[in-house]
């Protein structure tokens, strides 16, 4: 893992990225309760630095509160500790920390008594990264009284909005400027490898959604290879897209897909205006599956990509000067396709990561290099995906990945969409290869893909 250190996160981490890292840490054996214990211990150390005679720890109901309860337990035998609880803890980890705290010599109250605000140090463990102004009660009143006190205030991970924090004890990485960062034992792999955490960023359709809320996807391809665009189209539906249109000269019928049957046996200039119109109306376009190498087909398909808001560029279209969509583009080459555009794929994850990062920067999009370990980059960050199985070498699995990425891209940014697609398709393959072995078909992936994306977390 040491050689992958250059691909780890640094600086200020976003709330979404931290959610991904936290969940991925579970997969590497570092549970949420373990992380909370480490965070609480680090928070207690920050309080200890102040040499207080009396400490107040103000706790909300989420995991920030759990960190606060844990810190209170670590400090209980050293100083006078008062703990305020805004309500019953909501997470299993916070409940476990509260139960352990109840066995310690601390004062616990659910009332904002004056003693809380006359302590030497006040710990703000009220609300986490999702909190926004204006605050509701009791939080608004607590922040007002805390700010008016003469105490030193230490914020747990992030200050509650409006809080004047003298110090911010951040865990793993800073979430806001001016933080002191404490290591809590999250492994590097949770940052650089894709995992279940990446699926947390896949949007869920809210109650009251209507047809189209999940996005409209256009798949352009087919001709020499008839099944490819339909595999990609169904995968986009399984990834959550509401409306998928396959524009192709290939015959086919699937009741869930709108089939725009193009004349002739390959995509050509006479289809150009129609395809451009469809691309402009779509949230994302998947272009290339089964397209073939006819120069006319490649030229028209490249124009379709450039007319799209977002696009996945796949298969035969991965050659020469890569077309780029208006907003975001995902390129999904295998090693041979990568080589003909960017140069040979180097051995070793670290050098491959740098090569893919350079390729993504040059292409101006996200490159998802498929392989035994996928390598994904947007030209800045590099991620690796280890999910998958040997039975996935069968034809059509790449079309499923392209369609899945397109379905997610219709509602997500390109980098998280590519990471989630790679991980989800790979995990689906693992699940089905355990059942079917070497007889796995690309169509088998389609029946389980939505389950991986939306029900396994």
Task: Please describe the biggest sheet, giving its number of strands, its sense, and whether it closes into a barrel.
Answer: 9 strands, mixed
At the fourth level of CATH, the homologous superfamily of the largest domain is Ribokinase
Strand order of the largest sheet: 10-9-8-11-12-13-14-15-16
Assembly type of the shown chains?
single chain
Number of strands: 16
- What is the C-alpha radius of gyration, as a whole number of Å? 26 Å
CATH topology description of the largest domain: UDP-N-acetylmuramoyl-L-alanine:D-glutamate ligase
Secondary structure class reads alpha/beta
User: Do you know the CATH architecture of the largest domain?
Assistant: 3-Layer(aba) Sandwich
Taken together, the total number of domains comes to 2
The stretches of 5 or more residues where confidence is low (pLDDT under 50) are none
Mean pLDDT: 95
Cofactor: K(+); Mg(2+)
EC number: 4.2.1.136
Subunit structure: Homotetramer.
InterPro entries: CARKD (IPR000631), Nnr (IPR030677), Ribokinase-like (IPR029056), YjeF_N_dom (IPR004443), YjeF_N_dom_sf (IPR036652)
Q: What does this 3D model show about the protein?
A:
This protein is of the alpha/beta class and 457 residues long. It folds into 2 domains: 2-191, YjeF N-terminal domain (Rossmann fold), CATH 3.40.50.10260; 196-454, UDP-N-acetylmuramoyl-L-alanine:D-glutamate ligase (3-Layer(aba) Sandwich). The chain has 15 helices and 16 strands. It has helices at residues 15-27, 32-49, 63-75, 92-101, 139-148, 189-192, 196-199, 228-238, 272-280, 295-307, 335-342, 349-363, 397-409, 414-436, 442-454, and strands at residues 54-59, 80-85, 107-109, 121-125, 152-156, 167-171, 180-182, 216-220, 243-248, 258-261, 284-287, 310-313, 328-331, 366-369, 374-377, 382-385. The strands form 2 sheets. The protein has a 9-stranded mixed β-sheet with strand order 10-9-8-11-12-13-14-15-16, with helices on both faces. The chain has a 7-stranded parallel β-sheet with strand order 3-2-1-4-5-6-7, covered by helices on one side. The radius of gyration is 26 Å and the shape is elongated. The model has no long low-confidence stretch (mean pLDDT 95). Homotetramer. Its EC number is 4.2.1.136. AMP binds at residue 398. InterPro entries: CARKD, Nnr, Ribokinase-like, YjeF_N_dom, YjeF_N_dom_sf. It is an enzyme of class 4 (lyase).
